[in-house]
Design a protein that fits this description.
Blueprint lengths: L1 H28 L11 E2 L4 E4 L4 E3 L8 E6 L4 H17 L4 E7 L3 H10 L5 E5 L3 H5 L7 E5 L4 E7 L4 H13 L2
Parallel strand pairs: 4-5, 5-6
Antiparallel strand pairs: 1-8, 2-3, 2-6, 4-7, 7-8
Helix pairs in contact: 2-5
């Protein structure tokens, strides 16, 4: 019985030590893992309310590649990637459509981020994360790269750098 209690006590101490390491790992490496997929599949159509008024849908972007980013106003990794996303928008706005969808976020918080980072691309609200569910979003931020025919040709889970975004967009533009 003593051996059991000693072993159990040791396990509890190890568990208490590993839990903070796990939390720190999440903070350092983002809410989701990095990676991508290359198999093209049709992107689900959607309709969302734009933060500035009006609506956006996947159909509006047909004929032009689209960078579709899912995030949230309360996610630090999502906020961190916004300036790079905006720089990519400014670089490729004639060739590629950009749409950021903020899920489970208050409109006033999203509007504050738009103003703070002077975002030029369209920003939409997904209050119940129903559009995110269509895309199978399980962690944020996540960015989908959709070709001019409406097919998802690549994705990136986690905060993406400006250079990483440019590389993905160049592949998207030149993939025919």
């Amino acid at each position: 019985m003593r051996l059991f209690l000693r072993t159990w006590g040791l396990r509890m101490k190890v568990s208490r030590l590993l839990f903070p390491v796990f939390i720190v790992s999440l903070l350092l490496f983002g809410c989701a893992s990095t990676g991508g997929s290359k198999a093209a599949k049709p992107a689900p159509d959607f309709k969302v309310a734009l933060s500035g008024g009006g609506e956006a849908s996947l159909a509006q972007f047909r004929g032009k590649p689209l960078v579709l980013n899912f995030g949230a106003s309360w996610c630090p990794h999502c906020q961190h990637e916004l300036p790079g996303l905006n720089a990519s928008y400014n670089k490729y706005k004639g060739d590629v459509g950009f749409l950021a969808i903020f899920m489970k976020s208050k409109k006033e918080d999203v509007d504050a981020l738009i103003e703070k980072d002077s975002l030029g691309f369209k920003v939409a609200l997904d209050p119940d994360a129903s559009v995110a569910a269509l895309y199978g979003v399980r962690g944020i931020p996540v960015t989908f790269f959709i070709d001019e025919g409406g097919n998802i040709v690549d994705d990136y889970f986690g905060g993406i750098s400006e250079s990483g975004m440019s590389s993905k967009i160049e592949s998207l533009i030149h993939e025919k």
